Amino acid sequence: MVFWIICVVLSLVVGVLVVKPLWDGQKPPAADPDVAFYRAQLAELENDVARGTIDQLEADRARVEVQRRLLAADGRHMTRGGSAPSRGVAIAVIGVITAAGLGAYWQLGAIGYPDLPLKARIAASDEMRLNRPDQAALQAAALPPLAPDVPADYLASVEQLRKLVPTRPDDLRGWELLAYHEAQMREYPAAVEAQARVMTLRGDAASVDDKRLMVDLMVTAADGLVSPEAEVLVRQILEADPENAGALYYMGALYYQTDRSDVAFRLWRPIVEGGDPTEFHVAAARSQIEDAAFRAGVKYSLPALRGPNADDIANAQTMTEGDRQDMIRGMVSQLAGRLADEGGPASEWARLITAYGVLGEAENAAAIWAEAQTVFAGADAELATLRAAAEAAGVAQ
Asked: Residue 305 domain-assigned?
């Protein structure tokens, strides 16, 4: 109610200031000194004629000139003069101002919402983040996914696995298989339990990939929400690998879900602009970053995907084998040049190693593999991806 009272008072003040001159009209200016001067000259001229100090012919010539100047001065005075009040215009202006103000508020305002200063919003976001439900509560509230269409023999095998693995609590491989197949069956809470057992068995040897898989399953089981337990794992991943795309995505998602789109945008931007767009976490960030930027008040356009477009693919289908190979080599050369100049994620280095292997350029594949090991030294997950590509290209040794 206070807000509307303030709006009404301000509108009245602005309306009065704008409309008053139109309502009252302009007052005529004071007498023009030029007009008074020329009239005094005419009177003096008549006195001179009466006293005989000037003859009639000369007086007539002088009178004509003075009258001409008087008319000109009087015309200028009338131009600067006042205009009649226009109360119709004043009423129209009031209507336009009122309609424009209400229309702008209807489009841009939030009727019924209280004022939300920045500090209050940040505090509310922090409280929301601290008091959000735990993993168990989020899983219980999540909508059950549709059951997958799987063959009966596969379903029977999963049922056997569900009965067998719990009887072998220390069977690491068995729990890994159970976690995988529960996820394939879309039984995500069960997959979370199985992966939690994997993490327990691995202990301190649990890798970044183990933790990221655990977060993947936990967030999926929670219908896309990041729980406090998942946040702990995400922070552990970022401590070990600050550029991990999965962890950056989930940390951004946490802030995005708790009304801090500005933080989400800062976390997502590096992986959107430098990550592999075919990777799940990068694709998920790409799908949401423009909205996060808009909510954060940032003008941002999603960068175009790198790689061949539809025209390139269509043209490749009509090429000869030699021309097609030349086009592929050109694309590979562009990727190699960009990685040399700008760097890139391990997935792109692995793609380049694989491409050289397919082209039969083992020397180049081996050189990229050697360089990548230096670039990603100490990053176990990235090195595993690169080693798989090197093995596929036959240059892992």
From this structure: no
The Cα–Cα gap between 281 and 267 comes to 12
Alpha carbon dihedral 288, 250, 137, 223, in 10-degree steps, equals 40
200, 156, 201, 158: which is closest to 180 by C-alpha? 158
3-state SS, one letter per residue, for 233-247: HHHHHHHHCCCCHHH
- List Cα–Cα distances, 269 to 83, 191, 302, in angstroms: 61, 30, 9
CA triple 338-341-342, angle to 5 deg: 75
Rounded-to-integer distance, Cα 47 and Cα 210, Å: 116
CATH number for the domain harbouring residue 145: 1.25.40.10
The range of the structural domain enclosing residue 8 comes to: 2-107
Residue 30 lies in a domain: yes
pLDDT by 10s per residue, the chain, length 397: 566 677 677 777 776 776 666 555 545 555 567 767 777 877 887 887 777 777 777 777 777 787 777 777 666 655 554 555 556 666 676 777 777 777 777 766 666 666 666 788 788 888 988 999 999 999 999 988 888 888 899 899 999 999 999 999 999 999 999 999 999 898 999 999 999 999 999 999 999 999 999 999 999 999 999 999 999 999 999 999 999 999 999 999 999 999 999 999 999 999 998 887 778 888 889 889 999 999 888 898 888 765 554 455 455 556 666 666 666 677 778 778 878 777 777 878 888 888 888 778 888 888 888 888 888 877 777 787 888 888 878 887 6
Would you say residue 114 lies in a domain? no
- Token readout for 128 is 């929301």
Residue 288: closest CA among 254, 317, 318, 319: 254
Question: Measured between alpha carbons, how far apart are the two ends of the chain, in Å?
Answer: 76
Measured CA to CA, the distance from residue 296 to residue 171 in angstroms comes to 48
User: From the CB of residue 375, how many other CB atoms can be counted at a distance below 10 Å?
Assistant: 16
Is pTM, for the whole model, over 0.85?
no
With vertex at residue 269, the alpha carbon angle to CA 268 and CA 271, rounded to the nearest 5 degrees, is 70
Q: Among residues 348, 357, 397, which one has the least CA distance to residue 375? A: 348
